[in-house]
Each structure stands twice: as C-alpha cells, then as structure tokens.
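Action item from last meeting closed. Structure (296 res):
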C-alpha cells in the first residue's frame, strides 16, 4: 500500500544561482522565479507546470538538499506518518518548513542514506500560466490527467540495499525493473504510472551517497533536439549523447548542471499499468546511443 503519489519537488544547493538561472531557463526551458523564500533566503524557483515551483535552488553546497514526496490527502499524510513511526523511523511535523515549501502540511525524516525526505500534501498551485522560455511543455501529467510528478531522480548510495528496503517497505514504492551489468545492479521503482520516479545505484568505491541525476521530460522530440543544440552551442558538458533507454524507452541526453548534478532531458517515457506489468531484468541501459565516452 502506497500513500506516496508522486515526486513533487526537490531542493538543491548551488554555488551560483546566476549560473543555474541561465542554465535552467535557456537550456532546459524552465520558467525561473527568483525571490526570497518565507525564511528570507534568496531562492531560484523553477516552474514547469501550474505548481508554484518544482525545483528550488538555494545558495550552498552543490548537492541535493531535500526531496519532497507528495501524498494526495491529509489523511494519507497521517497514515504515512503513522506507518513510519511504527517502523521506528524518527518523523517530525514541520509547520515552519511547510510555509517555506509552500505546502499545507509536511513531515520530515531522514532516509537510510541521510537524504532529507519530506512528505507533504497540498502544494501551492498558481493561476499564472506556465510559460517556457524555450517553448517546451513538460510532462507532469499522464493522458488520464493523473499527476506523474516532476520527473525522476536516481540516488546512489553505499548502503543501497538498506535504502531500497526503506522506500519499498516503508513508503510503498514498487519495483519497475532492474538493470544488471557486471558488478552493478540498478533498481527502478514507481509510485504512479511514470516508469520510475526513483532509481537506486551502488556508490563507486570510496564515495558517499549523492544524487546522480534528475530527469525532466518534455512532450516532443523537437524540444529535446533544441535543448541539445543549446548544450552544444554553449559548450556544456554532454555526459551522454542522445539515446533510447531500454526499460523506460526514454529518448534522452544527459548534461551536467552547474551544480555537477546530472540532468537527463528526454521525451516519450513509458507509463506502467500495474495490472499488466511484469518486472524484468535488463542487460543494457539503452537500445542505442547514450555514448558516455566524452563524459568528464
Ligand atoms: Fe534517468
């Protein structure tokens, strides 16, 4: 039983908000709103739909600050909080943080890799039309209107097994499929029809936990192609060339953000129908492309 309905928002730190503003607006086509948050902190809010924001960038270390998992109702929030407490997880109600994140109520805990995990309901939604500076439309809803969240994230951690167990057993995530290469297994999980909202990979030797990449999906191939042109024009670091993933069939490329966090920018991602879905174990991450030889 899952109470979580979507990957609602994320917060990241950046050394330069100016760099992020330029990158997200001119390359990714996100609408940027730069203002002080309720705490008075200069924040770059990134919009991709009717939500006030989906990504918040604040000055700080170049890393993931928090992940916001959405539930549909207040009742679901209380039920999820109870389930976590019963499992012995320390969960705190955070009214001040709820104001800063612009949600109705929010609870906070730490996942086993130390990522700040926020679960909330009632996100701020605005009448102001989303207008992409590059003319793209982001896919945050399925064909039936169901919220699919902002995209997906991939977390890498030394204690990956413990992390996966936390999300599956305590937060109700369901395994979509696996990819297995020599010495590496990646686990993909979903909370709604989006093929995966969260995937897990093992940390390279000697490294701690980190956010590997954020995937943003647009609704047409031309949007991906134009963004790729911008990456090349600006000589940004293309960490994987255009390619088609096997499991979620996403047609995408990967570029390094100003924080070093990867951005996967794609289209045509697969949706899952739990009634007919079968978990598989893929031997490759792409049908073609995604050349990483220029990665640096
Ligand atoms: Fe991805």
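Sequence:
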């Amino acid at each position: 039983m899952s109470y979580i309905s979507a990957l609602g928002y994320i917060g990241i730190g950046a050394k330069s908000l100016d760099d992020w503003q330029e990158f997200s607006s001119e390359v990714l086509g996100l609408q940027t709103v730069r203002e002080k948050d309720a705490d008075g902190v200069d924040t770059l809010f990134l919009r991709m739909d009717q939500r006030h924001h989906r990504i918040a960038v604040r000055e700080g270390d170049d890393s993931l600050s928090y992940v916001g998992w959405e539930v549909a109702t207040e009742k679901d929030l209380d039920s999820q909080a109870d389930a976590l407490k019963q499992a012995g997880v320390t969960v705190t109600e955070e009214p001040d943080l709820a104001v800063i994140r612009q949600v109705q109520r929010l609870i906070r805990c730490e996942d086993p890799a130390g990522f700040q995990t926020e679960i909330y309901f009632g996100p701020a939604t605005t009448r102001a039309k989303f207008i992409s500076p590059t003319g793209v439309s982001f896919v945050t809803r399925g064909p039936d209107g169901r919220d699919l969240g902002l995209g997906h994230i991939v977390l890498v951690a030394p204690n990956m097994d413990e992390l996966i167990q936390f999300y599956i057993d305590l937060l109700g995530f369901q395994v979509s499929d696996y990819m297995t290469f020599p010495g590496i297994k990646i686990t993909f999980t979903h909370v709604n029809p989006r093929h995966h909202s969260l995937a897990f990979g093992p940390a390279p030797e000697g490294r701690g936990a980190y956010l590997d990449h954020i995937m943003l999906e647009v609704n047409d191939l031309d949007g991906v192609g134009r963004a790729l042109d911008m990456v090349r024009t600006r000589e940004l670091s293309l960490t994987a060339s255009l390619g088609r993933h096997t499991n979620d069939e996403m047609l995408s490329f990967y570029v390094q953000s100003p924080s070093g966090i990867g951005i996967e920018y794609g289209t045509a991602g697969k949706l899952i129908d739990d009634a007919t879905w079968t978990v598989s174990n893929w031997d490759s991450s792409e049908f073609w492309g995604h050349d990483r030889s220029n990665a640096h």
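Note appended to the action item: Residues 152, 154, 213, 215, 264 surround fe (ii) ion (CB under 6 Å).
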